[in-house]
Amino acid sequence: METRRFAIRTYGCQMNVHDSEKVSGLLLESGFTPAGDEADADVLIINTCSIRDKAEHQLYSDLGRLREWKAERPGRIVGVGGCVAQQVGARLLKRFPGLDFVFGTHNLRHVPGMLARAAEGARTARVDEDRSLARFDLPSGRAGGGPGRRWKAFVTVMEGCDMFCSFCIVPSTRGREISRPAAEIIREVRALAEEGVLEVTLLGQTVNAYGRHDVRRGRARSEGTMPFAELLARLDEVPGIERIRYTSPHPLFFDADLIRAHRELGSLCPHVHLPVQSGSDRILAAMRRRYTRGAYLEIVAALRRARADLSLTSDLIVGFPGETRQDFEDTLALVREAGFVDSFSFKYSPRPGTPARGMEGEVPPEEAQARLRALQSLQKEQTLAYHRGRVGERTQVLIDGESRRGPEQVSGRDPQNRVVNLEVEGDRPIGPGSLVPVRIRAATPHSLLAAVA
Ligand code: SF4
Predict the structure, then answer these.
(1) Was domain 394-452 assigned CATH 1.10.10.10?
(2) What is the largest CA-CA distance in the chain?
(3) In what order do the strands lie in the sheet with 77-81?
(4) What is the pLDDT of residues 92-107, one digit of tens each?
(5) Which atom from ligand 1 is nearest to the alpha carbon of 206?
(6) Contact residues of ligand 1, CB 6 A cut-off
(7) Would the pTM count as exceeding 0.85?
(8) Which part of the chain is CATH 2.40.50.140?
């Protein structure tokens, strides 16, 4: 097979980013090499997201445009994976004659084989659900760092979701919850630390429901698992791991032990991304989120008591069916009260196969747009105020590389997960992967500016 250089285009959440790393690892193991860019690639894989309809449209327009890319060099191969692939499956092959293979979220391991068949002219699709733990055993590639070195890594601890929020297609695209044995996770984190990784982010659709899979079915917790807070404590003991993050927790499983972990574990970062979605109890119930505004705010207060320097970020949906002006005002009030440092906010868009799709009370698009604007403008003010409040503080930045602001600055993240740009002084180069003590000198709407302390 002559096709050797690959590129992966990734949309969506960190789980998708991590899946792309795994596919990348599998392709490296199979003798492929990463292409400098897509123009240089022989194989292009698009890892899709279907959380919002725009993301799906994006795939369709990408595939339309790729006709030219394929025609430029005979033998080029295009594969599609991720949540849209899982949902649409083999129908994608029918719709796009230039597409060579389709793989679902449980079928990453089949990519090299499908590629080999594509090189022989076969067009295949695999979207079967895999309930085995073998899905966690994939190489994770090197997408998180430079060749031969990485300093940050994602580690999957659980996958799938049993929550069935009324607006979300994840339970059908990612399947039911399944948790990985703790010993394997600890082993992987130890190996990463030995490789030089300083920061790990534990991943799961409802990451703090880790190990719960069998609990709901009336048995003890899933074999080989332990409570999430205990897993964090075990990882905190791994020498070399300076920072532990996790995403995304669900408020329903945010227990006292997890809050205590934030007070006690030195490497657990003072940042929590805790999706709230709405500040109205009525809408939360319609969304089937299974917590109330009051319960959410209690978690926030307890977290702040545990870590005064905590930064809290969230996900919000506006214009959910039936959302009144008052419901929306409740959301704005919650954003203020919780003090979100940042948030991802979206207009509700109905997804096929979800209960919310048939709900009455559609919010007119222009009203939903106006609410989104109001929410985002409030968030902007809060983000800037938070950044300004940090000026003068000393902190530590894990450098990712050159700043977007130009070669005179490098950029990284602080423990609160804020982007910090650092002026490079004189001839003291600061390499990616360095953990640098800094003092914050200035605030901008999107980042902090610092100098080496
Ligand atoms: S918790 Fe709700 S929003 Fe999150 S993945 Fe599960 S169903 Fe979707």
Answers:
(1) no
(2) 63
(3) 33-34, 5-10, 43-48, 77-81, 101-103, 124-126
(4) 999 999 999 999 988 9
(5) 1
(6) 161, 163-165, 168, 170-171, 205-206, 250
(7) yes
(8) 394-452
